[in-house]
Design a protein that fits this description.
mainly alpha; 66% helix; 26 helices; two-stranded antiparallel sheet
Length: 583
């Protein structure tokens, strides 16, 4: 098994006549939307025609764009993909202009509710149409927007691509040999303490080769975000992000407040793990992911597939077949290699009812959990199948629901039948992930908040960025981490800071972790009867605000008590882990 995904269901190559024809068709489809927009059709007919034209463009753009983006994700130096990426961005910039014009048009319709109610087609997409009317207040003036989009190509877009190329081709020297960065970072899970420490030292040393361009990329992207927020009439980048996430400040404050309350418990876990590994001054960063206990099993790809089919199938037999199909149909690009991005993601091609998963699998249980996480996204996409494109745009926080749910199910099922030695290992694996999505994510949120505020005054130097990151880690990890062995380059390591249009791409993971555990608690209460409600919840995610989506399964996300109840689940695991360590 080569472990590479198969994109031939899209196109055979960039020379494929179908790809060339589809790419060539995109400008005409954009022109069609513009023609309808400026036609003399009555309001209802015009809006219906715009919905149809947008659906057609979205489907084709999804297919063409996915082929380009997915190719570059695993082959950063592919010349054809890079050439078409630039062309695609130019084409879609025009689409963004037309989309803004449509948004302004919808916002100008005074009797929008009546117009929507008069048409079955429009009623189906009522929420996104009303959202457009609201967004019309935050569009950039039409005479300025084309120039801003053009400048983004040589601004945030270019810096984001540069960061991707730097990361994809970055290597570190470990024991006299060069390794891709994802492989080096994967050694953090190695059973050998010397390997973990030396890999960490090699990683930290390697960033000096690219720290300066990375710093310029980050400074430029965040400054542009601030400029864009002001141009759109938002008071801050955070307000713009919350609006785009369909989330309110009250919900964010309740969640962040509860997370801060529970930091002492996470520090208890980290110090217990440190003692277990023989450290006296907190856990050094290189041992955050160290396996503990005697159950240090590794998994082959086939064993990973079988484990996920077995455990997820207990929740829903359809998920077992879904997992099997994902492996059999080569939806997953598994192994690290030069030119491939670090981390993991899932990308949907909605028009084809297929999801593509990228991981950097090296056989740890954490890697198995990562595959479960990404296949949770894929299952979410399957639940959205058949909906119009206007109803599949799930905001970042609830986009993590199914992925975290999958991780939680896997950990819960495996832990239930584990021996005491295995429990220690599995609890640690689960708490490692929770620490990342609560403690580390909070540090990233604090760091980005500071970067955006400071960048308004001046360009941050490498040393300032490193200092800000260390202070953010101190504020969240506290004495749980060894103060002399932290990670000053986490801002260079994480691609999320460099995602154009996705600022504060951090707190949604904490939301997903805690919301997913809250949804899982509903499953434990209701059993198999909850499965249809769960699938319907996933299908509903793109059709309303986060508060209303959560309320559909009886959850109040504006209440700090809800977030505390989810954190109590993690606290229970911490108590159990600490008892095993002390026992």
């Amino acid at each position: 098994m080569d472990g590479k995904w198969d994109l031939s269901f899209l196109y055979s190559s960039f020379q494929d006549e179908a790809f060339e024809a589809d790419f060539a068709a995109l400008p005409g489809m954009i022109d069609r939307i513009e023609e309808v927009l400026h036609s003399g059709l009555p309001t209802v007919e015009r809006l219906e025609a715009l919905v149809d034209a947008d659906e057609a463009l979205s489907a084709l753009g999804d297919k063409v764009g996915s082929f380009i983006h997915l190719t570059t994700a695993v082959d950063a130096d592919n010349e054809d993909a890079n050439r078409y990426m630039d062309k695609f961005i130019r084409v879609m910039n025009k689409a963004r202009l037309v989309d803004s014009a449509v948004t302004r048009y919808v916002g100008s319709i005074e009797n929008l509710d009546e117009v929507i109610a008069s048409s079955a087609k429009l009623t189906q997409v009522a929420f996104p149409l009303k959202e457009m009317a609201e967004n019309a207040r935050h569009t950039i003036p039409a005479e300025i927007e084309p120039w801003m989009l053009q400048m983004q190509m040589s601004g945030s877009g270019a810096f984001s691509q540069l960061r991707g190329k730097l990361d994809s081709n970055h290597t570190a020297t470990f024991r006299g040999k060069e390794y891709p960065l994802p492989a080096i970072r994967g050694m953090a899970y190695d059973a050998d303490a010397d390997v973990r420490r030396e890999a960490y030292e090699a990683e930290i040393a390697s960033y000096q080769k690219m720290e300066l361009p990375m710093a310029y990329c980050l400074n430029s992207i965040k400054q542009e975000a601030s400029t864009l927020a002001k141009a759109k009439g938002y008071s801050s980048v955070l307000e713009m992000t919350l609006h785009n996430s369909r989330m309110d400040q009250e919900t964010l404050d309740a969640m962040i407040g509860a997370m801060k309350e529970y930091l002492p418990h996470f520090r208890r876990y980290l110090k217990a793990k440190a003692r277990l590994l023989g450290h006296k001054n907190g856990l050094p960063f290189y041992d955050l992911f160290a396996p503990v206990g005697k159950a240090t099993r590794t998994f082959t790809v086939d064993e990973c597939r079988e484990k996920l089919m077995e455990e997820l199938g207990k929740f829903n037999p359809e998920m077992a077949a879904f997992v099997d199909n994902a492996f059999q149909q080569k939806w997953i690009d598994l192994f690290p290699r030069k030119g491939k991005r670090g981390g993991a993601f899932c990308s949907s091609v909605h028009s084809e009812d297929r999801s593509l998963v990228m991981t950097n699998f090296q056989g740890s249980f954490s890697d198995v959990s990562t595959v479960a996480h990404e296949l949770g996204h894929a299952w979410h996409n399957r639940c959205l199948a058949g909906l119009p494109y206007l109803l599949i745009h799930t905001p970042m926080p609830t986009a993590e629901t199914a992925s975290i749910f999958n991780e939680t199910i896997l950990a819960h099922q495996v832990l239930a039948s584990a021996t005491e030695d295995e429990q220690l290992t599995l609890l640690d694996a689960s708490l490692t992930e929770s620490t990342q999505t609560i403690v580390d994510i909070l540090s990233r949120y604090l760091f980005e908040t500071e970067v955006i505020a400071t960048r308004a005054d001046h360009v941050m130097t490498v040393e300032e960025l490193k200092d800000a990151m260390l202070r953010a880690q101190d504020a969240t990890y506290g004495d749980g981490l060894d103060p002399d062995v932290r990670h000053p380059y986490m801002w260079a390591c994480k691609s999320h800071y460099y995602s154009v249009g996705r600022n504060f791409y951090n707190f949604p993971y904490a939301f997903g972790e805690l919301f997913g555990k809250g949804v899982f608690a509903k499953y434990l209460e209701q059993g198999a009867d909850f499965v249809p409600a769960y699938n319907q919840l996933l299908r509903y995610c793109g059709s309303d605000t986060i508060a209303n989506v959560a309320a559909s399964v009886g959850i109040d996300v504006r209440s700090r008590d809800f977030w505390r109840s989810s954190l109590e689940v993690i606290k229970g695991e911490i108590d159990r882990f600490c008892a095993l360590v002390e026992g």
